[in-house]
Amino acid sequence: MQTQKLTIRSLLPGDDSTAFRTLNEEWISRYFSLEAADNALLGDPERMILRKGGRIYLMDLDGETVGCVALVPMGDGVYELSKMAVTPGHRGLGLGRRLIEHTIAQARVLGAKKLFLGSSRKLANAVHLYESVGFEHVPPERLPKMEYKRADVFMELVLA
User: Fold this and answer.
1) Residue 146: pLDDT above 70?
2) Which residues form a coiled coil (predicted)?
3) Is residue 123 part of a domain?
4) Is residue 139 part of a domain?
5) N or C: lower Cβ tally within 10 Å for the chain?
6) pLDDT confidence of 2, banded at 50, 70, 90?
7) What tens digit of pLDDT does each residue of 55-114 get?
8) Which pLDDT does position 160 carry in this prediction?
9) Structural domain tally of the chain?
10) Domain membership of residue 124 as a residue range
């Protein structure tokens, strides 16, 4: 039996962000259309996320990037969990759960008080994953304004 090496790493300023963009363009294009907010965030994640105090995590399996997620700071200890993706060939293996659990733990280290996200009913497996790690459904008016037309599921996870 072959052992696979799984690592989760932070995307740092100056790092190549191609995998982050490619992974997200794949799922967004598969189910929806890329929107202006997607293009802005994916086109310059260093400026839009990292320089604002956010984080991007990449999951590598045997040296291949197979997943990603971002924590986008919104102020006052609130972060948006955004742009979570796992490659189609690696879905259903528990990698998304490992990635989101890592991200929640890192959010706590950052002093986050609350995480929130917008998703879609079309992404039932993703919504179920978020529920299973403690995110709760909330009305959209409880959260910062979402820029995505596709968002029809709104969730938050209170950390503190």
Assistant:
1) yes
2) none
3) yes
4) yes
5) N
6) low
7) 999 999 999 999 999 999 999 999 999 999 999 999 989 999 999 999 999 999 999 999
8) 85
9) 1
10) 6-158
Instruction: Tell me the C-alpha distance between 126 and 119, whole Å.
Output: 8
Q: List, for residues 13-31, the tens digit of each pLDDT value.
A: 999 999 999 999 999 999 9
Residue 13 covered by a domain: yes
With CA atoms as reference, report the closest residue to 54 among 78, 37, 70: 70
The answer to whether the predicted template modeling score (pTM) of the entire model surpasses 0.85 is yes
Q: What is the CATH number of the domain that holds 80?
A: 3.40.630.30
Q: 41-46 long-range CB contacts below 8 Å, 24 or more apart?
A: 41/70, 41/72, 41/82, 41/83, 42/83, 45/11, 45/17, 45/20, 45/21, 45/70, 46/13, 46/14, 46/17
CA–CA gap between residue 53 and residue 64 (Å, rounded) = 26
Tell me, what amino acid is at 92?
Answer: G
- The tokens for 55 are 């984080």
**Which residues, other chains included, contact 4 with Cβ-Cβ below 8 Å and sequence gap of 6+?**
61, 62
